[in-house]
Specification:
Blueprint: H1 36-60, H2 64-70
Bound molecules: zinc ion.
Length: 90
């Protein structure tokens, strides 16, 4: 590490600067490795979020440029059968 006082390089195992004699700060410990499972879970959540965004986009109607690129054109007159009245929650 570099001495904070004079800026000269010191080996990591040195406690005082070889040049100016000032005490060197303790070497920074390497960050602990995170749980790989947590990372995988994060990727999974991101994938789920992307999936939902795509679903919402398809439900709301994609721009024609996106439709042509995806190859799944949805008819503009897409008819959704309305639920008959009387089938409410019991
Ligand atoms: Zn120094």
């Amino acid at each position: 590490m570099d001495c904070p006082n004079c800026g000269v390089y010191n080996p990591e195992d040195r406690r005082v600067c070889w040049r100016c004699g000032k005490e060197l700060p303790k070497p920074v410990e390497p960050p602990k490795k995170k749980d790989p499972r947590a990372r995988t879970q994060t990727i999974l959540w991101v994938a789920i979020a992307v999936f939902f965004v795509i679903m919402i986009l398809q439900l709301c109607g994609l721009p024609k440029t996106l439709q042509s690129s995806l190859g799944t054109p949805t008819p503009s007159s897409y008819h959704v059968p309305a639920a008959p009245p009387g089938l409410g929650l019991g």
